[in-house]
């Protein structure tokens, strides 16, 4: 008896049902042993195992009722679901449990490609043993090939973009990136999309092709040291050297601000109502940048208050010209004459 037929027969017996339930128990156990952030993995595999159990019971009932066509379909679905579930369970044990404990993290896109390749190989083997050649159908039907290519055009582009991101190593898991106006930390790069955790705790799904085509700022590379800018304006009467000294003294020793590279202060512009300065400092923990920026600005305010530095409000000076009294009398008389002439004209 061929192996596929043997597995189909075994899957519809108590032995097959027991083996499927045992796989479910193993999957539950492995998921509980994983770190909290990885316990969501394996949900699809669990769903396939429950499907395999249901298809197996239904196929057994159809066989006893003599519905051989229905039995053939259900038995094939039973075997397909079991293959998907067991492949996912094997990947969960190898990648998430064993390799993760060894601090070896395999990219999600590589895991998905390995998983799909194994499933496709097993499915093709099953179809060949059943006397069906799916490859010949695809290669001989140009219309079907064109339809599949057009339908999967964006998906294929995202897959190759994900592979390019892994190959170039321009971004990686845990990097803080800025794409357009969105800032987030890369959580996972999958075969179709990349998931980002924003500062507000939300998850944003970005297609891989968009990350490859758009301008992306990696805030974590070449290292995790990042420079921040704080712009503030002070009155013109304060000497720039004094202002820069007070600002640098204020930022030194701030929690989260690095001593090396040292912060600096530059004069940016002579604005309408103030001289604009930029205090530039370095930090390593971008996840806390909002807290660090708040502390730096708070210290600047208190330092300016102690140093007698004025942060002026925008001021606009308006000059209005005055009219001499003699000119006002002349204009008044001219207006009266014009009004009188107009009245005479109306009477005539």
Protein model, in words:
The chain is of the alpha+beta class. It folds into 3 domains: 3-132; 166-218, SH3 type barrels, CATH 2.30.30.60; 226-306, Alpha-Beta Plaits, CATH 3.30.70.100. Helix content is 57%, strand content 15%. It contains 12 helices and 8 strands. It has helices at residues 3-11, 14-33, 43-64, 68-101, 108-129, 134-140, 142-151, 153-168, 208-213, 240-251, 289-306, 325-347, and strands at 176-179, 182-189, 193-198, 203-207, 216-218, 226-234, 264-270, 275-283. It has a 5-stranded antiparallel β-sheet. A 3-stranded antiparallel β-sheet has the order 6-8-7, with helices on one face. Strand 1 (176-179) and strand 2 form a beta hairpin. The longest helix has 34 residues, at 68-101. The chain is elongated.
């Amino acid at each position: 008896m061929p192996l596929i037929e043997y597995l189909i027969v075994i899957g519809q017996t108590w032995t097959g049902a027991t083996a499927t339930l045992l796989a479910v128990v193993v999957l539950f156990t492995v998921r509980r042993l994983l770190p909290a952030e990885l316990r969501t993995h394996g949900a699809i595999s669990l769903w396939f195992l429950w499907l395999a159990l249901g298809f197996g019971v239904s196929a057994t009932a159809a066989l006893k009722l003599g519905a051989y066509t229905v039995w053939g379909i259900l038995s094939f679905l039973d075997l397909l679901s079991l293959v998907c579930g067991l492949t996912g369970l094997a990947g969960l044990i190898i990648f998430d449990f064993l390799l993760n404990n060894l601090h070896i993290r395999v990219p999600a896109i590589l895991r998905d490609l390995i998983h799909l390749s194994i499933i496709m190989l097993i499915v093709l083997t099953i179809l060949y043993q059943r006397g069906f050649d799916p490859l010949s159908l695809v290669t001989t039907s140009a219309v079907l090939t064109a339809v599949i290519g057009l339908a999967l055009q964006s998906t294929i582009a995202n897959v190759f973009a994900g592979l390019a991101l892994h190959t170039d190593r321009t971004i990686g898991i845990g990097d803080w990136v800025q794409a357009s106006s969105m800032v987030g930390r890369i959580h996972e790069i999958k075969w179709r999309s990349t998931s980002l955790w924003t500062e507000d705790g939300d998850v944003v799904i970005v297609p891989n092709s968009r990350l490859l085509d758009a301008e992306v700022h990696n805030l974590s590379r070449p290292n995790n040291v990042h420079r921040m800018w704080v712009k503030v304006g002070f009155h013109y009467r304060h000497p720039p050297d004094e202002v820069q000294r007070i600002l640098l003294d204020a930022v030194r020793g701030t929690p989260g601000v690095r001593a090396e590279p040292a912060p600096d202060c530059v004069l940016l512009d002579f604005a309408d109502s103030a001289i604009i300065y930029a205090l530039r400092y370095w930090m390593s923990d971008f996840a806390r940048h909002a807290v660090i920026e708040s502390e730096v600005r708070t210290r600047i305010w208190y330092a300016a208050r102690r140093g007698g530095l004025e942060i002026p409000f925008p001021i606009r000076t308006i000059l209005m010209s005055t009219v001499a009294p003699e000119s006002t009398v002349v204009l008044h008389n001219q207006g009266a004459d014009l009004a009188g002439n107009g009245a005479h004209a109306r009477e005539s």
